[in-house]
Design goal:
Length: 755
């Protein structure tokens, strides 16, 4: 497999850097190919591992890191790596090697409020959130368990995404049998007598590792101990400030700095008498265990992730929290003079028999391989709102479930989600920002364009129009047609029109790349009229009716139960309108029709309206028309198959309707349908001979008469019902939409990957 490894800066002496190169070597030994991306490579070139140095863009670190992440993810999309493994936090990682402490906690607890207004904070916080947020899919290799509770507190990170690694000590750190020879050679090299105490401070990042604390503790030693103690500081960092501090403390002759790091750290460990590691912030602290195995007693602060091994093996002193400089001063004196020193040394060397101290690298690569093998291709689905009873929403869910069953990961972005969340879906609820619908939709689309790309999906599938879609499911009618034919010139000067028109143009314009799934034949004519969309980007899907809408054996019992619930006896007629969006579905037309029925017929007629919408204006209309006692308007329900059996006629005089799945559902359920000619699926009513389609332009009186005539003609209703049920049996293609959509998506993805 081919993995991308990312690190902002590589130099040979950093702990994370060393871990990365050991993992690279293990991956290569197992036959994998690695490409490393970095901003700075301060080491000799690698002959066997390609290193791509990313151009530095930006004047400050956070902008440089943002550009680095953009660059790497673009390259990842181009090359198609099996995984992207990061050693610094950034968006777009499949795996993060967690060597850093929790940034948001430090920003909240150790910084002023004004700091959190800076672009730096927003950038670093976003990078950390991209890895640890509950909506993220990044797998995390944690090198200690110290920081895990903090991340879980701030980001609700799922425990199953965090994989705790053991230490990964190199065997050359273990004290050799001839340790005394190595000790004598190094001391002779630096002019140290055998009775002098050699104290080590090792670590790149002098501030975080607590070098100031170490120097103060050294200066506080009793004179007779201090004069025979020499401190050697080894690490890659700027040492000027600490060298000046050494001078102020009068320690110049007793402190040696190696600020470019050393390649021979084991030699220093074998010659040393103690290691001091009073860190402010240390996720792990590999040098603690390295010193322990070299037989060097260690003094470390409790906040170091690997300090627990000192206690576990009784190989030194762990300074409790909260930190006190006076306590550190006393502990350092004890470390250098305690009669326990020989036991600490022996216990530390004996820890070499603990296999877990050496397993970080093989375990990390094991996890990388497992994640790579399990990683399924990702599809991102976007829709403004999900609720269980909308036609578009049900179509989305069936397509997404079909894709999941085919082996795709499914990630969903929406502004609201009502109802149960399907197992295995990653669903991110995007905050609604703005007062008007179009401004909220604009923010939503901007969020998708910024965030979705980091997941490197195979495709983005949209169920509402917006820029950046690879596929669009065209459940909506042509917006531009409505704006031109049904709206005034003033409307076409509004910000809403400009935004919505631009979003439709981003999908349908002749220069766009979005693949479009149509649900009705007449959509093609409208969209091509305004946008000249090429035929190659359009596919007509069959309907996707659920088979549970077909008339079942116990349909008479279903009918009786629903009619009893609404107190409708068999001598009454039940008209039914189902659909979210009462205005576009023509509910006002239906109410006017009910009010027009002759008194004897009206007295026996009830109207049931089911859908997710605000019913207040229509209830007012019903009261004004004097029919409010005959009308029931209820929210969406789960028992639509039974409702269809309970009704006598479905009415659907929509003003606009790209499809109208409920029309076909009614047909196959044996419910006669009267619908306006604008409905995309009205043709199925005619093909099935299962109802009546109204001529366009719509005429209210014609609608009224059509309903009245069908209500009183029982024989015709029975025949239409029979025709519809038989049509559902004879036409299995009515149920195939999800499989056709899946096949189209897979075909286009394969073609894109091939090109």
């Amino acid at each position: 497999m081919h993995f991308a490894f990312t690190i902002f800066k590589y130099f040979p002496y950093g702990g994370i850097q060393r871990d990365m190169m050991k993992i690279v070597s293990e991956c290569a030994a197992r036959g994998h190919t690695i490409t490393i991306f970095t901003l700075r490579w301060e080491a000799p070139a690698q002959d066997d591992v390609p290193v791509e140095i990313v151009p530095i863009v930006g004047f400050n670190r956070h902008s440089q890191y943002e550009h680095f992440a953009e660059f790497v993810n673009q390259r990842a999309r181009e090359i198609g790596f099996d995984l992207v493994v990061g050693f610094n936090k950034m968006p777009g990682l499949d795996i993060y090697y967690g060597g850093d402490s929790c940034y948001i906690e430090k920003a909240l607890l150790q910084r002023d409020a004004w700091y959190r207004l800076l672009p730096r904070f927003k950038s670093f916080h976003a990078a950390e959130r991209a890895v640890y947020d509950k909506y993220s899919t990044t797998q995390i290799l944690a090198i200690s368990d110290v920081e895990t509770p903090r991340y879980r507190h701030y980001y609700q990170t799922q425990p199953d995404r965090i994989h705790l690694l053991p230490p990964g000590i190199e065997h050359d750190r273990i004290a050799p049998a001839d340790k005394s020879v190595a000790r004598h050679e190094l001391r002779a090299e630096f002019g140290l007598r055998e009775d002098q105490l050699l104290l080590l401070f090792i670590g790149s990042g002098f501030i975080k590792k607590g070098l100031d604390r170490a120097l103060l503790a050294m200066a506080a030693l009793p004179k007779e101990i201090k004069v025979k103690t020499h401190l050697m500081i080894i690490g890659r960092d700027k040492g000027d400030a600490f060298e000046r501090m050494t001078m102020r403390l009068g320690l110049t002759k007793q402190v040696t700095f190696f600020t470019e790091g050393r390649d021979d750290v084991p030699r220093f460990l074998f010659a040393a008498d103690a290691l001091l590691h009073p860190a402010y912030d240390e996720t792990a602290g590999m040098v603690i265990v390295e010193a322990m195995l070299a037989g060097v007693p260690v003094l470390a602060t409790k906040n170091c992730g690997y300090a627990k091994y000192l206690n576990q093996h009784q190989a030194g002193i762990v300074l409790p929290l909260p930190f006190s400089q006076e306590d550190l001063n006393q502990a350092l004196l004890e470390l250098l003079t305690s009669p326990m020193r020989e036991q600490w040394q022996a216990h530390g060397i004996a820890a070499k028999s603990s296999d877990e101290l050496f397993q970080l690298v093989p375990k990390a690569v094991d996890i990388i391989e497992v994640v790579a093998k399990q990683r399924e291709p990702l599809l991102i689905f976007v829709l403004f709102h999900y609720f269980p009873y909308g036609g578009l929403q049900r179509d989305f869910l069936r397509i997404a479930l079909a894709c999941q069953a085919e082996g795709f990961q499914v990630r969903v972005y929406c502004m609201s989600w009502q109802g149960e969340q399907p197992s295995g879906f990653d669903i991110e609820i995007v905050e609604e920002i703005g007062v008007a619908n179009h401004t909220r939709q604009q923010h939503f689309a901007q969020h998708i364009s910024k965030q979705a790309k980091w997941y490197r999906p195979c495709a983005i599938v949209g169920f509402n129009r917006m820029p950046g879609l690879d596929f669009y499911y065209a459940a909506d009618s042509c917006f531009e047609h409505k704006a031109q034919a049904m709206r005034s010139a003033i409307y076409r000067r509004t910000e809403r029109y400009r935004l919505m028109s631009s979003y439709e143009r981003a999908v349908f314009a002749d220069h766009a790349q979005t693949q479009i799934m149509l649900i009705a034949p007449d959509q093609k004519e409208q969209f091509q009229k305004y946008y000249q969309t090429s035929d190659e980007r359009l596919v007509l899907l069959p309907p996707g009716v659920n088979r549970d809408r077909c008339r079942a054996d116990g349909w008479q019992q279903q009918r009786a139960q629903v009619r009893a619930e609404f107190e409708i006896d068999e001598g009454q007629y039940l008209l039914l309108l189902v659909g979210s969006g009462f205005i576009t579905k023509g509910l006002d037309r239906v109410l006017n029709m009910v009010a027009s029925l002759p008194s004897p017929l009206a007295a026996k007629t009830r109207l049931l309206v089911i859908g997710q919408d605000n019913p207040q204006q229509f209830r007012r209309q019903a009261r004004l028309l004097g029919i409010h006692q005959q009308v029931s308007i209820v929210k969406g329900r789960d028992d639509i198959p039974a409702i269809l059996q309970a009704a006598d006629i479905m009415v659907h005089p929509a003003y606009m309707e790209s499809g109208g799945m409920v029309l076909i559902e009614a047909v196959i359920a044996g419910l006669p349908v009267i619908a306006s000619g604008v409905c995309g699926f009205a043709s199925y009513i005619q093909q099935a001979q299962a109802g009546l389609v109204l001529d366009e332009p719509f005429d209210q009186q014609n609608f009224n008469a059509t309903v009245e005539n069908l209500l009183v003609d029982k024989d015709r209703r029975v025949q239409l019902s029979f025709n519809g049920v038989q049509y559902g049996v004879d036409h299995p293609e009515l149920y195939d939409m999800p499989s056709h959509a899946l096949a189209f998506i897979k075909q286009k993805i394969k073609a894109q990957q091939a090109s």
